Amino acid sequence: MNPMKYKIISLILLVTGAISPFQAQDTYHTLEMLLPPADVDGEWQVIGPAECAEGQDLFLLINGGAEIYHEYGFIKAIYQTYIAENGKSINLEIYEMSEPSSAYGMYTFKSGHKGKTVALGCQGVLESYYLNFWADKYLITVVGMDSSDMVLKGIFNMAHYISDRLTCQVSPPALTRLIPGEDLMRNGITYIKGNLGLFNQYLFDRKNIFGLREGVIGKYSDHTLMLFQYPSEEEALRWYLNAKEKLKSSATFTDFIDQKNQFEMKGDHSEKVIVKHYRRWILIAIGDERAITDSDLDQIQKNLGL
Amino acid sequence: MGKKITRRSFIKTSGAIGVNAFLGSTVIPEIGSGSEKIDIAIVKSKDYFNAAREAVRLMGGIQMYVPENAKVALLPNPGSGNPGSYTKPEILRAAIQMCKEAGAAQIAVIGWLPMRDWIKCGSKRVIDEEGIDLIITDLRDESQFMRVPVPKGVGIKEARLLKTHFKFDRLIDLPITKEHSGNKYSGALKNMMGMNSPKSCQTFHRSNWVFNTDDIEFLEQCIADLNTVIRVDLCIADATEFLITNGPSGPGKLSRPQKVLVGTDRVAIDAYCATLFGLNPQDVIAVKRAYAHGLGEMDLSKINIKEIEF
């Protein structure tokens, strides 16, 4: 991009930003304080005022798809765009979630399995053209429009600027440590807080037949393990029985075998699915018939320490 | 709105208009004598601009859908500005130029998303360079949306459509197909939410949606319902590079089939695009519900697809 065009675009963004319905207000002061300044590494300029959203307005700020953020517990967000003189740009997104487990959960939801772990905040991962990290109740996403060295350097510098201003005083929820770590894929843990999180990993049903409020999913090369936690044994049993009834009559699953506190079935890709009720948990294993056995779930039970 | 182009009239005229408009005929196979009925034209190419033009040519040419002196509204998806979330500016540019060539009296991009979104995705630059209007309705001003009954609606009984839309007599849908964490798929049908008031769109999710476990299906039903009251004259769908995780805003994993699809059947286009995600068309509830509304065909074995690559 030539310098004149760069200046024109900057001017347009400055003017239009000034009339953005999402312009930052005092409510967002804490988030604004985390935004890297224009000269964070001398190459990237802030374009326009930051854009913000609280509650349901996130749907408008990100143009749809905010359901999953709300399922995890969304409070507010701030977005800022940076542009370099050559026209390349970086989008920075900072989300304040309701609690650290919400930020962690959304982080695990957004992180792919091929990314490279980076030392930022409590945990971070760099994908080909973007980076996610979480720190306490904050989730930070920095997105480049490509993966050139210049853009990746900008992404890192901005992420470090924010990370340096946040403390990490919490660990991932204890539930995540109950999934066996051996052979787990890189970034293989997804912590979920509802049916949308589950639905995006494996489709049992579009309705929340497990009454899911908290769970963890572990991805392995040839199978997947899930652990859903409930406030009481009675509640876990109730949702186990509910899911069993719904899945038994589902057109998607076949070869249903009902055993004591456990049932098995086949999914529409011939995968084997084992669902087990154990005290205040529901344990699930999904994978190739040869890849999963009862012992996968036994390992989780051992981890439960009961 | 102008007269709807029926399948019969399409078959009659496609042979006459389907000429090699801009690319060498040695590269692109020609449509036959007009007896070949094409429901969807798909062009695979790294050249998105010419892929869009060629796909329209395969469908009989832009004149089939945009008569001289027509007033044409274009509805691209500006997404979030993150890669794979927005309709490529090259495809928008192709649509604009084809409308000009057809002799359209007015061409404008319409929507209610704020200016920044159009700038971030590169559409604003194309709109300015092509000298057409970008008409943005103030999303907070409900008086700028017209209440329209949805007689066939199951989830919604009323839509609130952009008043601007009614000043045009042709609508071209320019969606990007992409993953959607809320319902797994976004495409031609869902893009119509860009025509509806955001306040109305939020009711698609229900106010207590977090606790309403039926909501995923409800959203899909509302999308299908909304489509019953919006006529689309042509759909030019971007399946070139799109999000397959963390959609619709991203960032996430990208898939690059590098395809542009053109047709008049939104259901058929979404049914095909669903397969690019490894989904069956039946897996996308909006497609099933739109099919049930009679808006189009979802059975790919009944859809005549012409696909080429250059």
What would you note in describing this structure?
The complex is a heterodimer of chains A (306) and B (310). Chain A contains 9 helices and 14 strands. Chain A is 29% helix and 32% strand. Chain A has helices at 3-18, 29-32, 58-61, 67-72, 100-110, 149-163, 195-199, 233-248, 294-304; strands at 44-54, 74-84, 89-97, 116-118, 123-126, 130-135, 138-144, 184-192, 215-220, 223-229, 254-259, 262-266, 272-278, 281-287. The radius of gyration of chain A is 22 Å and the shape is elongated. The model of chain A has no long low-confidence stretch (mean pLDDT 88). Chain A has 2 domains: 3-163, Protein Transport Mog1p, Chain A, CATH 3.40.1000; 174-304, 3-Layer(aba) Sandwich (Protein Transport Mog1p, Chain A). By secondary structure, chain B is α/β, with parallel strands linked by helices. Chain B has helices spanning 7-17, 48-58, 89-101, 115-120, 123-130, 198-203, 215-227, 266-275, 285-292, and strands at residues 40-44, 71-76, 106-111, 133-136, 145-149, 158-162, 170-174, 234-239, 242-243, 254-255, 259-263, 305-309. In chain B, β5 (145-149) and β6 (158-162) form a beta hairpin. The longest helix of chain B has 13 residues, at 89-101. Chain B starts with 6 loop residues before the first helix and ends with a strand. Classes of the chains: A alpha+beta (306), B alpha/beta (310). The A-B interface holds A 9, 12-13, 16-17, 19-22, 48, 51, 56, 59-60, 62-65, 67-68, 70-71, 81, 89, 91, 109-110, 112, 127, 129-130, 141, 143, 145-146, 194-196, 199-200, 206-208 and B 77-83, 85, 113-117, 119-120, 124-125, 139-140, 180-182, 184, 186, 193, 198, 201-202, 205, 209-210, 213-217, 245-253, 285.
